[in-house]
Specification:
With 117 residues, the protein is mainly β. 0% of the residues lie in helices and 53% in strands. The strands form 2 sheets. Strands 2, 4, 5, 6, 9, 10 and 11 form a 7-stranded mixed β-sheet that branches. A 4-stranded antiparallel β-sheet has the order 1-3-8-7, with no helix packed on it. A hairpin with a 6-residue loop joins strand 4 and strand 5.
Length: 117
Amino acid sequence: QVQLVESGGGLVQPGESLRLSCAASGSIFRLYVMGWYRQAPGKQRELVADIGSGGSTYYADSVKGRFTISRDNAKNAVYLQMNSLNPEDTAVYYCNARHSIDRRSYWGQGTQVTVSA
């Protein structure tokens, strides 16, 4: 069992930055692929970025070059640095942990990111 708690969301203007954090507890963090998903109103939840225990990363095309995912295995934490935010990035952002072997998946409660002038 893994517990995930996100923080760092908020309201920003277009072009500004935010850094999301996700603190994990309850299991061996390094065994999990950590990801950030987002869900905008009326849309399906989508994968934004993920990172393996060794640091390999994936980014959705819509965020490449603007967002950076990182993890600190010693702190059981994963981060999402979001730069050059635009209104299309407005969504609830969820932290996800997926076990690298049995693929069990856990979700945080979500944090709201709103980009508006």
